[in-house]
TrEMBL record:
GO cellular component: chloroplast; thylakoid
Native species: Escallonia rubra
InterPro entries on file: FKBP19-like, PPIase_dom_sf, PPIase_FKBP_dom
Signal sequence interval, chain numbering: 1-22
Name the record gives this protein: peptidylprolyl isomerase
Record keywords, A-Z: Isomerase, Rotamase, Signal
Enzyme Commission number(s) of this protein: 5.2.1.8
SUPFAM superfamilies in UniProt: FKBP-like
Known catalytic reactions: [protein]-peptidylproline (omega=180) = [protein]-peptidylproline (omega=0)
Length: 190
């Protein structure tokens, strides 16, 4: 075999390993097997509400459902669907890990107070305590004026803020649809 042939074979072999390695690190379990990232997609395994929110219960809760005015405590993850499924928030866990963590780092808000984006409020208000729900958030139910500082939940890391901001401020080139995984951990009566 010529030296050019050996070099070509070595490059092909190395590039194949690089692709395999990259795919290991880019695995996004929340997005696996879906054609996310296309505006206004409908997913048959999700329930769609009148507002356009799509959700799927990953684990049904067995407790009560929160009422308007009550404070809820949730754990959540956020993904930018139109930006390669990039995680912009993964609280208390590694990418794709299981829900766990102490109460101090969890997110709290009062239902009906408009502290959070409309999709988040709608999703949590229909959950039972202990449930885990995955929601697909169309841009009109997301962050007002494409600014995560105006409504929660907000990314807590600089890299998460940067990823979300990049998607929200992009003018028409990237789909602004988001995906959240939400676990309802506690309901505090008003």
């Amino acid at each position: 075999m010529s030296s050019i042939g050996l070099l070509a074979a070595a490059l092909l072999n190395a590039s194949g390993k690089g692709v395999a390695l990259a795919s290991e690190f880019a695995d996004m379990p929340a997005l696996k097997g879906k054609d996310y990232g296309k505006t206004k997609m409908r997913y048959p395994d999700y329930t769609e509400t009148r507002s356009g929110l799509q959700y799927k219960d990953l684990r049904l809760g067995s407790g009560p459902t929160p009422k308007n005015g009550e404070t809820v405590v949730v754990d959540w993850d956020g993904y930018t669907i139109g930006y390669y499924g990039r995680i912009f928030e993964a609280r208390n866990k590694t990418k794709g890990g299981s829900f766990e963590g102490g109460d101090k780092d969890l997110y709290r808000f009062r239902l009906g107070s408009q502290e959070v984006i409309p999709a988040f409020e709608e999703a949590v208000s229909g959950m039972a305590l202990g449930g885990v729900r995955r929601i697909i958030v169309p841009p009109e139910l997301g962050y007002p004026d494409n600014d995560y500082n105006k409504s929660g939940p907000r990314p807590t890391t600089f890299s998460g803020q940067r990823a979300l901001d990049f998607v929200l401020r992009n003018q028409g080139l990237i789909d602004k649809t988001l995906l959240f995984d939400i676990e309802l951990l506690k309901i505090v009566p008003s």
